[in-house]
Specification:
Elements: E1 4-16, E2 21-34, E3 62-63, E4 70-79, H1 94-100, E5 103-112, E6 116-117, H2 125-128, E7 138-139, H3 150-156, E8 166-167, E9 181-185, E10 189-203, E11 206-215, E12 247-255
Antiparallel strand pairs: 1-2, 2-3, 2-4, 4-5, 5-10, 6-9, 7-8, 10-11, 11-12
Length: about 260
Amino acid sequence: MGDSYYHSLQATITKRFSSGGTLSGNYSWAKFLSNSESTVAQVESHSVGQIQDYTNLRAEKSYLSFDVPQRLVISYILDLPVGKGKRFLGNSGGLVQDLVGGWNATGINIFQSGFPLAIVATNNNLANLYGAGQIRPNVVVGCSKSIGSIGSQGRSGKPFINSACFTAPGANAFGNEPRTDGALRGAGIDNWDFSIGKTTPLHENVNLVFRAEAFNLINRTQFGDPNVNSASSIFGVITSQQNQPRLLQFSLRLNY
């Protein structure tokens, strides 16, 4: 019975280097609309828009909870142009080649818009007695729904959502807040993974491979969704972190 609509512009650009390596960029600009979706807790990792009025699905059409307006992924695998046969120190050998040759760098950078939030209210008679779905609040006309940026509010522990913009509907009324709110979005992704490695030939088919890897290189915090229950005392407050802090790891492997 549900419908979903996805529209997007997608672009990919790839550059291959004669010295070895590839640089690739993938960008999408999209809009994802729906009047219903899954609400399985084991699958969803953030607030999900729930149906309020099962008899009027047209009024439930809004952004899908996984709507991502913009996403950019940049990935690269580059052989550094240093060492024997390369652009720099191409005639090197012996100890110099052992030190500067065989290095490569790889990385993936992801930049993505945040998901829309799903604001809810305390269920009233329509939900408790007459089989309606999750009740939503009414919106105060002309009110600015957000306070500052989600990053600054998350770090300060102050609410990201302006509670003054939402009021409870009557005991027998539906709220006019959309199923998901495009004006209120969770934290986006700004993640940098990077690694650098070196392959050193030791003897014929024997190579020593060193790698240093950094996940979330700039140690950016991606905050979890704020509390979306407009009747809660901590409405709009962020109490969780969505991603992992910076992780560094090193490896040394002998291939033969």
